[in-house]
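C2 domain-containing protein (Escallonia herrerae), 173 aa
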Amino acid sequence: MGEPFGMLKVIVVQGKRLVVRDFKTSDPYVIVKLGDQRAKTKVINSCLNPVWNEEMTFPLSEPVGNLKLEVFDKDRFKADDKMGHAQLSLQPLVTAGRLRQIIGVATDGSTLRKVTPNSDNCLAVESSIDWVNGEVVQDVWLRLCEVESGDIELKLILTNNPVAPSRSQNVQK
């Protein structure tokens, strides 16, 4: 990995219409991966529409890869069940941040770029990348792959201040 050039805050906001993996419900949690860095949300018991609102911070370095997430159902006596996965290319976010830095012109609330669903991402709907309170922000809904249903809402915040990572942890899966 190259020299860190910024920080990426990932806020795992909520899940909607997640699949049932236990008898009538699931106990979901999310693992977020960026390169070899990983972080995990808490388990929300008996819920198919969980609200996490958990923030994770990752240092960014070249080359910028995809943000990947996996959703699992926590099980007590056997291996956790898969509830889907998704990925999002970070290149549009990083490009918008660099463009903003080079041009230096953007008023608070300005839209820097729009990202449409395509093969590089699992976007459920179009997403905009905005300049908010001095940060590059993208709100996204990701459609989970290889499952019957499920969407995850994330908020991504790109800052240009490289610092040590927080809440990132190695999770064995």
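The radius of gyration is 16 Å. The CA atoms of residues 116 and 126 lie 5 Å apart. ok done for today
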